[in-house]
Structures are given as structure tokens and as C-alpha cells.
Amino acid sequence: MNEEITFSGDKASPKDGSRRDFLKKTAVAGIGIAAINISDVVPAVASEPAVVNGIPVERMLVALNVNGKEHTLPIDTRTSMLDALREQLEMTGSKKGCDHGQCGACTVIIDGRRQLSCLTLAAMCDGRKVTTIEGLAEGDKLHPMQAAFVERDAMQCGYCTPGQICSAVAMLEEAKNGDASFATQNLNAIARGQKLTKAEIQERMSGNICRCGAYPNIVAAIEDVQAGGANEAVCIQACSR
Length: 241
Ligand code: FES
Ligand code: FES
What we know:
Elements: E1 7-8, E2 11-12, H1 19-41, E3 51-52, E4 55-56, E5 59-66, E6 69-76, H2 81-88, E7 107-110, E8 113-116, E9 128-131, H3 144-151, H4 161-176, H5 198-204, H6 215-227, H7 229-240
Parallel strand pairs: 5-9
Antiparallel strand pairs: 1-2, 3-4, 5-6, 7-8, 7-9
Helix pairs in contact: 3-6
The protein binds FE2/S2 (inorganic) cluster (FES) (2 copies).
């Protein structure tokens, strides 16, 4: 039977022993209840998460197909695709210009679409196909867009060039698929297999900045590839790898 325990101010009731005894009993009971609850409800944690600058770091495994090769990376969930490529896979072809989505130097092709890798979380690309500048050539054979850039001397320092080329390759696919742009004249007449004007190419490539000002030659290289039917199959192959 439970004892009735009462207190009056700081003094324990004489019929139930001292207050100190009561506190000891309840403290022991409390520890017991807490121990039972914790062990029943919370599974054992193997290790504490790392903490950087006071913020716990969550990690996960991400499966990526990069340039046709499968990788499983343990990543901090805050890692950008650009950092995963450069720091973990040591593929430094994709450049970090602004790291804020403003220059296009980090452009890669993800599932056939051009994407800014500095603004893309690697954790969101689990199971997806990524093509970087390193994956466009086939051995010693340059991708037609790479060959056209060389032919047209479409670079000076070359820092923007990997992003320009990846962007241009995927951009021509967008045009072939009938995607509109800000410069599309008639949205009702848009169709697959568009041949882009110079103005359309300039508009569609406007997210890729070249501080050296190689724009005329970049546009000329893209026009060359667009005009070259023989190169088309190679472009599509590289885009879908
Ligand atoms: S580095 Fe990604 S847009 Fe500049
Ligand atoms: S070639 Fe230097 S930034 Fe474009």
C-alpha cells in the first residue's frame, strides 16, 4: 500500500518519515522510470554526429553515375554537386567561379539538362546521371563542341570554357526538343528540331559569363556545331551518357 506523504512548509510530516527519505525514494524511482523509457524507446546510437561550428553534420550515401561510371559517395548533406565533383571525385574540370549561380562556370549536364552544379545539392542527385566536361570526349576524340571551340579559338584564359561547352551541348538539345527561350518569337509556332538564330543562341547562353569577352567566337562555334549534321549523333550520345 502506498504511504501517504505530506509536507508542511519545510518540515516533513512525522507520520511518514523525513522529507530527505521521501526525496531519496522519488529520485531513485525517477531514475528507474527514465532508464526504462530511454532503453525502450530510443535505439542505440552508434556514434554522435560530427559538429562543425556548433552545427551537427548529417551524412548520407549518394549513388551517382558520373560520365558513365558509378560512384557511391559518403557526403555531408550540405555538399554541392560542384564540391562533390571537385573535392571528392577530384574532377576539377567544372570550375568554381562565383559559387552563387551567377557565372555558369560550374555548368554540368544532369539527366540531359544543363544545371549549375554550385546550386545543386549532391544529395538531391541520388541515382542520376551527371556529365561533366571530362565526360564529353571519347578517348582522344574531342566532342564536336570541344572541337568547334578549338577551331574557332573560342577562349582566352579558358576558365569559363568547360561551363560554356557543357551548356552549349545541352542547349542545342533543348532547341531540338522544342524548348522555348526568352528570345523565342512565336511560342505558338515552336516545334522540335529548331535551328537557332544568332540572337537565340546568345540569349540561351546568357547564363554563361566570359570575363575575357570571347562571346563572338563562342557563338560562332555553337553555330558550327548546329550546322554540322554529322556531329549531331555524337552530341546526343554524349548528352545521354
Ligand atoms: S560557380 Fe556556379 S554559377 Fe558561378
Ligand atoms: S575565356 Fe576567360 S573567362 Fe571565358
